[in-house]
Amino acid sequence: MTQFSGGEGGREGGGGGELVSSLSDGSICIKANAQSCGECIQVSEICGWCTDETFLSEGESKSARCDDVSYLKKKNCNNIENPRGRTDVIQNKSVTIRNKDGNIKLKPEEITQIQPQKLKVTLRSGEPQTLDLKFKRAEDYPIDLYYLMDLSFSMKDDLENVKNLGTHLMREMREITSDFRIGFGSFVEKTVMPYISTTPARLINPCSNNENCTSPFSYKNVLKLTSNGEKFNDLVSKQQISGNLDSPEGGFDAIMQVAVCEVSQIGWRNVTRLLVFSTDAGFHFAGDGKLGGIVLPNDGKCHLENDVYSMSHYYDYPSIAHLVQKLSDHNIQTIFAVTEEFQPVYQELKNLIPKSAVGTLSSNSSNVIKLIIDAYNSLSSEVILENSKLPEGVSISYKAFCKNGVQGTEDNGRKCTNISIGDEVSFKISIESQKCPSGGKPEVITVKPLGFNEEVSIELNFICDCECAKKGEPNSPKCHGGNGIFECGACKCNEGRIGRECECSKDEVRSDDLDANCRKPNSTDICSNNGECLCGTCECKKRENPAEVYSGKYCECDNFNCDRSGNLLCGGHGRCECRKCICDANYTGNACECSLDESTCLAKNGQLCNGRGKCECGICKCEDPKFQGPTCEVCPTCPGVCTEHKDCVQCRAFGDGEKKEMCQKECSYFNLIKVKERKDLPQPTDQSFPLTHCKEKDANDCWFYYTYAITKNSTKEVFVVEKLDCPSGPDIIPIVAGVVAGIVLIGLALLLIWKLLMIIHDRREFAKFEKEKMNAKWDTGENPIYKSAVTTVVNPKYEGK
C-alpha cells in the first residue's frame, strides 16, 4: 500500500523578540474561538491545538489553545495536536501493454487502461490531497457498435445501402480490433396521433402511392450485438420502411431504450460502446408528448417486450439532460450520422452530450462506413475525465499532462486530445474538503474517462476530531467536579456549563459577588477594562492581531505596550512582558536600546573611539569637539595626515623646510626610518595597523615620499625615501632644432598648398577658355569694303559660237 502525506502549514514570527504586528493567517485560528480540539482543526489546515495542561496563562481563554502550529511552538507548547490528511493507494494494477497480432487474447475485464484503480483519501478541512492518475489507450480493445436507424419513409434509399453494412463494416473494423460486434435497431415515431395516422388502413400501411410499408412503431431491437456480419446483413435486408405524419422523429425514445436495456436485450459488454444514430430529420424531446396527450415524464427504464418499445404511448420523450445522464452512466459514445440539412441541429446537440460526434450522411447513406470510422477515431483520440457527485463541502480539480508536453488546467485539465493507440497521458487530481460532513462517515466517489467502462474508486474519509479526543475522561474531576469531559488538555463542558474548568452555570455567569473577584485591590475596573468577568475569573479580550495578548489575573498585563526604540517594540532586542521590556543579552535600557557591545566603537587603529571619546550604548561620544563620526575619526577642520607631518619629515630626513631651526624640539615624536627606493616603503597589506602613504613637494619643486603609521603599541613610525625626486632641466638643442624644423615644414606645407591652388585655378581658366572657343559662331558674309582684283567683261558680239 502506497501512502502520501500532506504537509504542514505555519506562520513565521518576527525576529529579535519583536512581536508580529500585522495580521497573519494565524488570526483565523484565534478568531474561530474554538472550544475543543475538534472545532480547532476544522477551522483551517494551519491550526493546531495545544494539549499541554499548563499551557494557558492566567486570564487566557480556552480558545487560546487553538492557533497556528508554528506560533504554538514559539509559545513553548510541547504537545500539539495537528492531524494531517493522507492518500493511500489500495489497488494499483499496471496498465495493459498488448499487441493486436499477439498470441495472447485477453478478455475485456482483463484489460487495464487506467491506473490506479482504488484509493483511500483522508481529508482534513482546508488541506488538499493530490493523487496521480495514468491513462493509456490499449491496443486491440474490443468494440460493440449498435446501428440505430430511422426507418421513416424518407430513409427508403438509405436502407438499401445499409443492408450490406454488416460484412463491410466488420471487415473495416477488423483493422482496428480483432474483437468487434455489431447490432441493429430501428425507430419511427410514437404510435398515437398526431405523430401518425391512426386510421385502421394507415395503421397497417402508413405509406401512400401503393408503397408497401410496415406498420408504424416507436423502437424495435432488430438484432442484438453479434460478431456475425452475415446475420446482420440477412436481418437488415428484411426490414421495411414505415411512415409518420410529422417531420421530427421519435429517436430519443429509441436512444433511451438502447442505453438502459443493457445486457439482456441489446447485449452490451464492458468494452468500448458505440451507438450510431442515423436519420435525415430532427427529433422530439421532453414536453412534445403533450401533443399526443402523454404527460408522464420518461422513467429512464427498459420497456422492451418482444424487442419492441411497449410504453411509447405512456411515457413522454426523454429530455436531453436525461439522455446525457443515461449515456454517461452506461459509457455509450454516440455518433450522429445525419444529412447535411440537419447538421447545425445535431452539432448543437453534440455540444450538450459529452463524447459524441457528428458526421454528414450522404443522401443515400453510401458513405456510412467511412463516417463511422472517422467518428470512432475522433472519439477514441480524446479522453475526458468526469467524477460522480461529490459530498457536501468537497471540491475537486484536475490538471492534465498530455502529449508533447501540453498541459491543461481548470476546464481543460479534465481532458487530453490527439491520443493514439499506445499513448500514455497523466492527470493530477486535487481533492479538498472545506468542512466535515454531517455524520463524518466515509463517502465513495468515482473518477472515470467518459466512454470507457473503467473507473477509479476513491474512498473519502474525513478528520472530524483529534486523536486525543478518543482518550477523553467523561465527568472528570478536573472539570469542576465532573461537569465536563477532560480531553486534549482542556475541559469540554457539559451542556449548560461554561468556564475554563466548567466551573459556572450559564444561569449564574454574572453577579456582584463574582465581579468582586475580578477587580484589582483599590480599583473599580473589572478585569482592568481589558476582559470580561466570567464565573469570578477574568477572561481577557482578544486583540485583532493574535500576537498581541492581554494576560494576568486581572488582565492588567499585555505584551504590546512596552517602550519602543527605532519604532520597534523593546528596540527589537527584547520581549515585552507585562508592559516591561526583558532585554536580550548585551542590551540594556527601558527599551533595550542600549547595546553593551563595544565592537561598534573600535576605530581603524584599534582604539575605542580613536582615543578621542567614550563608548556609550555602542555609540561613540566624542570628547574633542574637532572630531566626529561613528568612531571619532573624522576631523573636517584638521589638515591631512601627510600635510600635518610634512615639515617634520622634511627637516629630519633632508635638513630642510620650515621647521629646520626647531626640528629637534618639535619633530622628535616619531621614529624615522630611511629606505633607498620607493618600492621599499611598507605597504598596507604588510601591516596589521593603519598606514598612510604620502607624496609631498619642497620649495625646490622636488618630491619626497614617506609613510606614516601608528603601531599597536601606539608608536609612531615614518618610513622615508632618502633621495629626493627632483625634475631635470630642459634640453635646449632639441627644442631649438625642433622649432626650426617645425617652421621649415610649415613653410614647405604652405608653398605646396599655394602651388596646388594655382594649378587648380589655371586648369579651371583653361577649361573655361576652351568652352568659350567651342561655343564661338563666326559671320560668313562678305566684307563690304572688299573688292576682287578680277574684272569680267562680256563680248556683246559673242553668241556662244
UniProtKB/TrEMBL annotation:
Domain Integrin beta subunit VWA: 36-466
PROSITE patterns: I_EGF_1, I_EGF_2
GO CC list: cell surface; focal adhesion; integrin complex; lamellipodium; melanosome; ruffle membrane; synapse
Stated family: Belongs to the integrin beta chain family.
Keywords: Calcium, Cell adhesion, Cell junction, Cell membrane, Cell projection, Disulfide bond, EGF-like domain, Glycoprotein, Integrin, Magnesium, Membrane, Metal-binding, Myogenesis, Phosphoprotein, Receptor, Repeat, Signal, Transmembrane, Transmembrane helix
PANTHER family assigned: INTEGRIN BETA, INTEGRIN BETA SUBUNIT
Gene name tied to this protein: ITGB1
Stretches assigned to the Integrin beta subunit cytoplasmic domain: 755-801
Residues annotated as signal peptide: none
Topology in the lipid bilayer: Single-pass type I membrane protein
Domain Integrin beta subunit tail: 642-731
Location in the cell: Cell membrane; Cell projection, Invadopodium membrane; Cell projection, Lamellipodium; Cell projection, Ruffle membrane
Main location: membrane
The protein's name in its UniProt record: Integrin beta
